[in-house]
Automatic annotation (TrEMBL):
PANTHER family reported for this sequence: ER-BOUND OXYGENASE MPAB_MPAB'_RUBBER OXYGENASE CATALYTIC DOMAIN-CONTAINING PROTEIN, PTHR36124
Domain of life: Eukaryota
InterPro entries in UniProt: MPAB
Protein name, as recorded: ER-bound oxygenase mpaB/mpaB'/Rubber oxygenase catalytic domain-containing protein
Source species: Cyphellophora attinorum
GO MF term set: oxidoreductase activity
Length: 470
C-alpha cells in the first residue's frame, strides 16, 4: 500500500498532497460564462409563471362584470368560489401581507371608543399581564383561522362560528356590543387586505378576488347574525362599463357588497373614530405584546414601524405620536423594492410552507387533533407560544426557543402557555371556559352542512341566502 501511494503522489498537483484531495475551482470568468445565459431564461420563466395561480383561479371560476364567451356574471358566483379566493390569497399569492393586514384590521377596531371601552372593562386586553393579552390574541387567531381555512358549512367552520357567537352573545344581550360595532369589525377584515396589498405587494387584487372577498365575508356576517340593513343607504357604484343601475344593491354580488361596506365604514369612522384614552391603552398593550419578545433596540424599531403603517385618523384616535418621517419613507422604499423583486425575479409560492415542514403542520393549526384529548396545536407563533405543543425540539433546541430563553420570554410548555393545545369550546376568557355548550350545539347545528356553497347567491331567497333554513 505504501509503495502504491509513493507511486501515485508524485503524479498529483503539489496542492493535492494534503488529503482529502479537493479539485480546484474553475476561474470565476468561466462560472459567469455558464450563469449569465441562465438569467434571461429565469426572467422569462418568472414572467410566464408569476401569475399562474391567479390565471388558474380565473379559469376555474370564470365570473366577470363584463362576461364574455364562456364567462358568467358576478352575481352567479357561489360561496365555494369565494372560499377558493380566500385560500389562494392567504396561502399562496400574498400569505405575509394578507395575514398581517388581518392583524392590523383587528388593531384598527381598537380605535373605536365603544369597542376599546368594552375591552378595558372586561380586562381582556387591559390586564398588566402580558400572558393575558397574548392568550386573548391567540384565542382570536384560533377562531378566525378556523373559519378562514376550513370550508363553509364544515364542522370546523361551524364550531368556530358557534363559539364566536356565544362569546359575543353574552355582551350583545347586555347591549354592550352594538350591531354597528360588529359590522365595522367585519368591514375591517374585508377592506384592509386589499388596501394593504394594493399598496405593498407585487400586484393588486383582481375584480374576481375582490368579489370573492366580499361574498365570503357576507357569509361570515350572516353566520355571525350581523344585520346589513345600514348598507341600504350606501348603494354600490355602477359596474365598469355599465350605466348606473338603481336595482343594484349590496345584495347583488360580492363586489357590490364590498363597495357598499367600504362606503359605510368610511362614514362610520368619520363619526366615531375620535381621540380617547381606552383606545390608547388597548393599542399600547397590543403593541407591547408584539414587541415584548424582541431585543429592546429592535422592539423600538418595530414599534415605530407599526405606528408608521397606521393612518393619521387611527393614530389620533389612539393618542399615538406621529413617527419620524424617515420611517414612512424607508418603509415605502423597502416594500417597493420587495414588490419589484417578487414580481420580476421570484417564482410563485406553491404552498404556505416549504417542503421541509410536515404536511400536518402546514396550516396555522395542526390538521389532525390529538387522538386522546381531541385538542389541536398551533404549528407556529409570532409573539408568545400559546397552544404550541412542547415537543423536545420546540422547547429545547429550536432557534425560536433559544431566542426566547435569551430574552427571558416563555417557551412552549411554560405555565400559562396552554401547551396541552386548544378545544374550540374552551377558547375565550377564563370566565367562559366550559360554558355555553348548549348554545354552541344549537349554532353548530344551524351551520354545519346547511350552507349553500354551490348555489349562486342571486338564486337564493332574500334574507340569509347562504343558509338552508332549519
Amino acid at each position: 500500500m505504501a509503495g502504491n501511494l509513493t507511486t501515485i503522489l508524485p503524479r498529483l498537483p503539489s496542492s493535492a498532497t494534503t488529503f482529502p484531495y479537493v479539485l480546484p475551482l474553475p476561474p470565476a470568468r468561466t462560472i459567469l460564462g455558464y450563469l449569465l445565459p441562465l438569467i434571461p431564461i429565469h426572467l422569462v420563466l418568472v414572467k410566464i409563471f408569476r401569475n399562474r395561480f391567479s390565471r388558474q383561479l380565473q379559469a376555474k371560476h370564470p365570473y366577470s362584470s363584463n362576461p364574455g364567451p364562456g364567462q358568467k356574471p358576478l352575481s352567479e358566483m357561489p360561496l365555494s368560489a369565494a372560499h377558493d379566493v380566500i385560500k389562494l390569497l392567504s396561502s399562496k399569492d400574498f400569505p405575509y401581507f394578507f395575514n398581517l393586514a388581518l392583524q392590523f384590521a383587528l388593531i384598527r377596531t381598537y380605535a373605536v371608543p365603544s369597542i376599546s371601552t368594552l375591552l378595558v372593562k372586561t380586562t381582556q386586553l387591559d390586564s398588566q399581564s402580558r400572558n393575558t393579552v397574548g392568550k386573548r390574541y391567540a384565542d382570536t387567531g384560533v377562531i378566525i383561522s378556523e373559519f378562514y381555512h376550513n370550508a363553509p358549512g364544515s364542522t370546523r367552520s361551524a364550531e368556530a362560528f358557534a363559539r364566536l357567537n356565544y362569546l359575543h352573545g353574552h355582551y350583545i344581550r347586555q347591549s354592550k356590543i352594538s350591531n354597528d360595532d360588529m359590522l365595522y369589525t367585519l368591514s375591517m377584515f374585508v377592506l384592509q387586505p386589499p388596501e394593504w396589498i394594493d399598496k405593498y405587494e407585487w400586484r393588486p387584487f383582481t375584480e374576481l378576488e375582490i368579489c370573492g372577498i366580499g361574498l365570503f365575508h357576507r357569509f361570515v356576517g350572516e353566520a355571525m347574525e350581523i344585520s346589513f340593513d345600514p348598507l341600504d343607504d350606501f348603494p354600490p357604484p355602477p359596474l365598469p362599463g355599465h350605466a348606473a343601475d338603481k336595482s343594484r344593491t349590496w345584495r347583488t354580488d360580492g363586489l357590490a357588497f364590498f363597495h357598499s361596506l367600504d362606503a359605510w365604514s368610511k362614514v362610520y369612522e368619520t363619526r366615531v373614530m375620535l381621540p380617547n384614552e381606552p383606545s390608547h391603552s388597548i393599542t399600547m398593550k397590543t403593541l407591547h405584546l408584539l414587541t415584548s419578545t424582541l431585543p429592546s433596540s429592535l422592539g423600538k424599531v418595530v414599534y415605530q414601524t407599526a405606528i408608521s403603517m397606521m393612518d393619521t385618523r387611527m393614530r389620533a384616535a389612539c393618542l399615538l405620536p406621529s413617527p419620524p418621517p424617515s420611517y414612512r419613507r424607508n418603509i415605502d422604499r423597502f416594500l417597493a423594492i420587495r414588490a419589484f423583486v417578487i414580481r420580476h425575479f421570484c417564482y410563485p409560492r406553491r404552498a404556505l410552507w416549504g417542503w421541509w415542514v410536515p404536511e400536518e403542520e402546514r396550516g396555522m393549526s395542526t390538521e389532525t387533533p390529538d387522538p386522546i384529548t381531541g385538542r389541536r396545536y398551533f404549528a407556529t407563533y409570532e409573539a408568545l407560544p400559546h397552544y404550541v405543543k412542547p415537543t423536545f425540539f420546540n422547547r429545547w433546541i429550536s432557534p425560536a426557543a433559544w431566542a426566547s430563553w435569551s430574552l427571558g420570554v416563555p417557551v412552549p410548555g411554560d405555565p400559562e402557555m396552554e401547551g396541552k393545545g386548544w378545544l374550540m369550546t374552551e377558547t375565550g376568557p377564563k370566565a367562559f371556559v366550559g360554558k355555553g355548550n348548549a348554545e354552541f350545539a344549537v349554532t353548530k347545528q344551524r351551520l354545519e352542512g346547511r350552507v349553500r356553497v354551490q348555489e349562486p347567491v342571486s338564486d337564493a331567497p332574500r334574507g340569509c341566502p347562504m343558509f338552508v333554513k332549519v
